Amino acid sequence: xxxxxxxxxDENERLAIMTSEIDSAELLSRASQLIDLAKAAGxxxxxxxxxxxxxxxxxxxxxxxxxxxxxxxxDFSLRVFVGKQVASVSANPGFDMKVLAERAVAMAxxxxxxxxxxxxxxxxxxxxxxxxELYDPTDVPTDALREAALEMEQxxxxxxxxxxxxxxxxxxxxxxxxxxxxxxxxxxxxxxxFGRSVSVIAGEGTKMERDYDFDSxxxxxxxxxxxLIGHRAGERTVKRVNPRxxxxxxxxxxxxxxxxxxxxxxxxxxxxxxxxxxxxxxFLRDKMGQQVLKAGLSITDDPLVVRGSSSRPFDxxxxxxxxxxxxxxxxxNHWFLSTSTAREARPCHQRxxxxxxxxxxxxxxxxxxxxRRHLTRGPDQVDRQRFxxxxxxxxxxxxxxxxxxxxxxxxxxxxxxxxxxxxxxxDRVQSQGHVHAxxxxxxxxxxxxxxLSDHRHRGHxxxxxxxxxxxxxxxxxxxxxxxxxxxxxxxxxxxxxxRSPEVWWKNEGKSPVSAADFAANDRLQSLLLxxxxxxxxxxxxTDDDVARLGRETLFVVDPIDxxxxxxxxxxxxxxxxxVVHRGQPVAGVLVAPxxxxxxxxxxxxxxxxxxxxxxxxxxxxxxxxxxAADENLVKKFEPDFRDEVRRVRHVPSLAYRLAxxxxxxxxxxxxxxxxxxxxxAAADLILERAGGRLIDLAGNRLVYNRExxxxxxxxxxxxxxxxxxxxxLAGLAPG
Length: 735
Description:
seven-stranded mixed beta sheet; six-stranded antiparallel beta sheet; 18 helices; about 25% helix
């Protein structure tokens, strides 16, 4: 198939279109005005970012169009410094710039000091930068996207052995960034992205397997032919059918699929991330100048590759990039550092040479091999900054998805990284401010990070054995993302814990919400939607947007589940985050900072608590059934059954109660009417992967992301507990 594009412009007209789409002069002017207004309001320093995005996509399944989407968004973000106090605010078009600037300065004045937050050194600012040819003005019409998607899917279905389709999609998009600082930097650039993807199923019954293929490019003409992509997807899927288990051996050579092999670079990049080094959570933190890889292996960071999928002329602080050999001949040479992490990791008078990561194209090469492979694997989710690029090494991003959309990297200090590169649709409620925890400026760490050993944060069990959660069913990368985001939100919430945060009441005075809820929600929304702009959003502390119903995949979030316990100083509260795909949770985490506990699970993977596997009880030797339920409800049970039940003290956090079943602390619980998706989704998956179930009184699993997110009475537990509980609940009216 030939790609059909609009060719009605000559080169001069295309250049004019390119300029008008970002309208850099107008956006630069507005950003400069924000800086001036912030300084007039009392800021010592400030920087402003404007991100513009445009995208169009079509998804099909079994020869029919399932969705056509187009989105446009402009996001403004202002960060101000008053001495060592910092605050950030963001807004959509139409805001009052003076009010925004004054609000930011007012927030900074009541924030704690952050000794490390700062603008980049003026001497490091980019004064000129090259044209990296990141933008292709080709306009791909919706009809062409649809034809490409249909042709890909049909080519995959034509492969012998393929039995069904998960869908196919094609997309195009562009994004532009404008950055202005109060100490002299002013710049802008644009990047484009075109993508195609298809996922199909082979086999029958319990032996079905699914795989995919895709292509993503800066220039439309460079995309692989739809038939080729579809054929590759079909062949990969068929090869997965009827796998064989190999014999166990003590000395076996393992050959990794290229998609998996690319991920190793990401683990290394995460370990040499300056933020991880400063937090002392990196296993390479004391390895500078030492051998960390096999001799002959080198990893190069080069953000200036022309037409590089992750290249950019300057980073989010206005500093130009340079090619750097991060690991040379197996020896670690540099950390990935932003200005603030450089200061945190080392005193200011000891200025290290920094790798300024801003959407690099990493190169892994072996001396004497004669070849060089370019990999687009960034650092781990903790400090990754994305600017409109697709991750070709992230099967989780394409697997079981209908389309490929714009993505971005974050590698900035903790305040900055949440504000850049929001190339998502404009149907989300954007945060209007970043609320700081009382001790955020002191780099407060929750006890979870202080107490647990480093390997437990990297997918290992207590014995140091690798748990393959990052490659299970393609959703492991999302699990890593939401676990890191939940940890950060937990740190923020824990900063308020025991300090009498301000409290309001909602739902006609029935439900409390605290300043900590809003602060944690703000961090989660910034981190997660920055990393996954094509995902929907459902949170207890964000106004519901019906646009989520049109999203196959979304985040379901409760920033603090158990707010009553939190306010009362009880430790049984947690941050709950789930990824829900087609109505079912596929990744879920619960982080309970006050208890030093983390629960996590990914579809088809194990349920984990602090890195170790957990499971529900199979029944207690004394025949006792331990349940968490309201005392008045237990009184309605049959007398004989009541004698078998031991009721535990009520735990306000519903998500944590379900986690107690998953780790065997209790056998079951009854969920009263009016629980919500955000209370349940993450814990539901964790419980399921631990061997339990959360069901309605008819025995059905829950479906999430419906128009109504409220549920009737539910039961949860191990199988033996449910067999006993359900008959007792059958005659009870929901309530």
